[in-house]
Fold this sequence. Notes:
Elements: E1 8-12, H1 18-35, H2 46-58, E2 63-72, E3 75-87, E4 98-106, H3 115-129, E5 135-137, H4 144-153, H5 177-183, H6 186-189
Parallel strand pairs: 4-5
Antiparallel strand pairs: 1-2, 2-3, 3-4
Helix pairs in contact: 1-2
Amino acid sequence: MPSPKSDLIVRPALSSDLPALARLGAALARAHHDMDPDRFFVTPSLEEGYEWWLGKERGNRKAIVLAAVRRARGRERVVGYAYGRLEPRDWNTLREKCGVGIDLMVEPQARGRGIGGRLVAELLRRLAAKGAPRIVIQVAHRNRAAQRVFSHLGFRSTMLEMTMETGGLRKDEAPSTSSVARRRGSLSRSPRA
Ligand SMILES: CC(C)(COP(=O)(O)OP(=O)(O)OC[C@H]1O[C@@H](n2cnc3c(N)ncnc32)[C@H](O)[C@@H]1OP(=O)(O)O)[C@@H](O)C(=O)NCCC(=O)NCCS
């Protein structure tokens, strides 16, 4: 049996990799939707969308689209991918020009064998070569497994995104503590509220 790492290469994605990358990207999007359906949208044609977008980003000189490919019996099979790109200074978040890691996904059967780490290392190397002084990523709050992987790889926590639905507010109603509590049903249920 070949060693798990020796037959694996990480290289820029080819156009022939795109259908496999799109399947992984769509699975990543669906996993996020399952974690918090209000925050993370999905569409019926995710695979097509990912194939189109990643194909376009392959041609963007500020973007990096990588494929992790396993070679066996003269054939190649995509087992993971990473996508990131250079972003300019963003005053809204006080984020200096940097590389942003956008997608990272390894197929479930191939996890825990160093493929994610190799994809991140290559993404870092290539974004640094394009002038990025640091890499910033966003990880879903509920995705503890990925947070542990990124911490282990050397990333530090820098921001916590928080979300609240506005659905129950009237147009003229400010989100006061009491209106928010009412929408959550806590006023009617809690005798101390
Ligand atoms: C996150 C993900 C890409 C990691 O890929 P992977 O191939 O399993 O990761 P690796 O095996 O390369 O592990 C990377 C490092 O994290 C470490 N690690 C793995 N799981 C860990 C855990 N649960 N806790 C702590 N460290 C962990 C590994 O030991 C490795 O470190 P090392 O190189 O020093 O040995 C993969 O789990 C995945 O595709 N998850 C679903 C998609 C996802 O959540 N993507 C991130 C979205 S932001």
